[in-house]
Amino acid sequence: MTSATPSGTELATLIEVTRRFVERHHPVADARRLLETQGPYDAIAWDRLHREIGLTGVATGDLGDLPRLGTLTTLQEIFGANLAASPWFATTVLAGTFLHAAAGAAATQEHLDGRTAALLGPTTPLLEVPGALPLAAQHDGAAVLLTGGTTVVDGASAALWVAVARCDDGSTVVATVRPGAPGSTVRSLDPIDATRPIAEVSMDRTIASRWWPVDGARLADVIAEVSVLLAAEMVGAAQRCLDSTVAYARDRMAFGQPIGSFQAIQHHLADLFVDVSRSRALLAEAVREREGAAFRGIAHMACAQASETLTTAAERQIAIHGGIGFTWEHDAHLYLRRATSSQVVWGRPADHWEAAARELGLEVDEPGDDRT
Amino acid sequence: MTAAGPTDVPEPIRAWLAEHAPGYEDTSGRLATFAPADPDAANEELERARGWERHKSRHGWAGIALPPELGGRGASRYESLVFADEESRYRLPLHVFSATHGMVVPTLLRWGTDRQKQRFVPPTLDGRELWCQLFSEPGAGSDLAGLSTRAVRTSAGWCVTGQKVWTSNAHVARWGYLLARTDPDVPKNEGLSTFVLDMRAAGVSVRPLRQATGGASFNEVFLDDVHIPHEALLGREGNGWTVARSTLMNERLGITSSIVPSDALIALARERGRLGDPDVRRQLVRILAARRVLEHLRHTTLEAARTDEDPGPEGSAAKIVIGEAAAAVAALAQDLLGVDALTYDVWTEYRIGVPGSRIGGGTEEVMRTILAERVLGLPRGPRVDKDVPWSRLARTGRLG
């Protein structure tokens, strides 16, 4: 396969290729490597992903006959199961989705051709909350100047910054910025989840390389789309936690029988299965809806539910493994770290539940409302 | 906000129901799924249920998936489920005939003789003959296979003595689908048989059971030396547990999201001026999410039916989701009502009914064990009664 977008590729083939790629280049051991060495992403893996397999082209470009959201969520599940640590997340899922919405497929392909990117974007799906967009944009003739600061995934390593900023008049723009451009500073932070390297990025009247206006409605759609993609990744990780724990419960013996035969363990895992089922169901419904307020509403439900489910799954995995699940050497805490970072990077479950409520018509501003 | 149905409902079905269903809807505003406390209201509901079955039958909508020679339409199981889905959006008294259609008729079709099918299936289609399911006993709920109602062989058939409980509609049913013990000296699962019981036979007495919400949806059924003829045996003698299990699998097809009264709850929140409260909104949207999950699980079940696969584990998960959603609805409603929650009304009646709905049809604990053992493949818990003759088992009040 060449670096060209694999348009017309059967979905099944694409999934199989991705699965093999992730198994080979992103075993959970690679996530551990990042945690233990604070080392960089595997460059060979990224090169293969982009150049040979063309997955970033798939995600940011035209997918031919393949259904976009359904394809991407399936791939995201595969990445999530192994806690794949790759520029894919910040470049494709975060920055690429915004760039694609603002600038179109061709421009996105051009900007992201092999380059890694990072998103300086919303900290919550509730855009009208003060500080939701941490960057302010100022028009200066034909140029746009950006001011503000935020914590950014891959902020220190990305070759391109994609910023979402609010103008004085309330409108929003998506802009590309060269990392290190005049007025910008970068400071790496010590992450709790090493698969999500973070840096504090700030700008002071930094000139954007290019910029596009994006209206509020489009922004809401993009935020919903990213929410679905992250939900899929979390579902993949939660499923892996469930599968690993079921396997452990079958083998581990206590009181003369496998611990999986004890009702307490059975019921905890059954509840976890129900939670994962909830997350999968909402994810599938979001993919089915595809657009409009119904889509956005369910997208946020899916993200909130998947977020809570992954947290529960990671905690239960440790609990059922007992002491060994709490050791550094066991992979369980890696999933807990990912559960934590996922919630913070893209908004708390509470914010997504509220975003869903608004999209689904539970009006906030009612005369005579008691806002306690 | 009503969630959109995930399945495309054929226009003839949608249109016919839109025109005819409203005439048979409940207008009381009640939300609880158990029978009303007022006996006149309970009777009215029963007659309305019979009327609806008759009406469907007259217009050719009865027995959609049943063969024409038994009075049905001869269409697919998928189409009958789609009809049932659309039907469930109206406030119809569907629970009255649901066991008859959903549990008994499929069992007769699978295990009955041609004579039994011819005799028993057609009269269920127009509301004439209602069935009750005689399974649970005071000593056998979750452990149904441990039941003790005894059918002793006679020259003319069997003689049955025992007691059944939680029997919906026994007081008005024409026939009972009976699970009884024909051999007490083999392990419990192996000594059961299923029968058709004539509810008018000598020795059958029905006593209403008053549930916590005040009405009497259920009954106790006492069987004292009731005679059952040979031809009333359903399936083979000793094969009753297999028959009963196949019946219970049909339960998974019965769950629809409309059972969660989210629209009424949103209206209550709006009416009380609490829609702006973030806590209320979060609880509401989580309940809406639960409905959407149920719709998706239902959609998966329907798709499996379309390709004629067996229903998967979705039913067990769905029951747990519904139970938790019902409790969430009750809790939020109580909060919204404030001091009005001291008064008996549709919401407080609903609230008292919630724990019952989480037990009937299989407790959530049983659902969890089914998911754990049969879906996740976890090792089965120890069973002390597996290979022991039933007569030697310990039962409540009787040591083994």
Outline the fold blueprint.
The complex is a heterodimer of chains A (372) and B (400).
Chain A: H1 11-25, H2 28-37, H3 43-52, H4 55-60, H5 68-81, H6 88-111, E1 117-120, E2 135-140, E3 143-153, E4 160-167, E5 172-177, E6 184-188, E7 198-207, E8 210-214, H7 216-251, E9 253-254, E10 257-258, H8 263-289, H9 292-321, H10 332-345, H11 349-359
Parallel strand pairs in A: 1-4, 2-4
Antiparallel strand pairs in A: 2-3, 3-7, 4-5, 5-8, 6-7, 9-10
Helix pairs in contact in A: 1-5, 5-7, 6-7, 7-8, 7-9, 7-10, 8-9, 9-10, 9-11
Chain B: H1 11-20, H2 39-58, H3 77-87, H4 95-111, H5 114-120, E1 131-134, E2 150-153, E3 157-164, E4 175-181, E5 192-198, E6 204-209, E7 218-229, E8 233-234, H6 240-249, H7 262-271, H8 278-306, H9 314-337, H10 346-357, H11 364-375
Parallel strand pairs in B: 1-4
Antiparallel strand pairs in B: 2-3, 3-7, 4-5, 5-8, 6-7
Helix pairs in contact in B: 3-8, 4-6, 7-8, 7-9, 8-9, 9-10, 9-11
Instruction: Summarize the helix and strand pattern of chain B as letters.
Output: HHHHHEEEEEEEEHHHHHH
Catalogue the unreliable spans of chain A. 1-8, 368-372
* End-to-end Cα distance of chain A: 59 Å
Radius of gyration of chain A: 21 Å
Q: Structural class from helices and strands of chain A?
A: alpha+beta
The beta-strand count of chain B equals 8
Largest sheet of chain A: 8 strands, mixed
Question: SSE order of chain A, as H and E?
Answer: HHHHHHEEEEEEEEHEEHHHH
Q: Specify the helix fraction band of chain B.
A: 40-55%
Mean pLDDT figure of chain A: 92
Largest sheet: spatial strand order of chain B? 1-4-5-8
Given the C-alpha coordinates, what overall shape of chain A results? globular
Number of E strands of chain A: 10
Return the average pLDDT of chain B rounded to an integer.
91
| Structural class by SSE content of chain B | alpha+beta
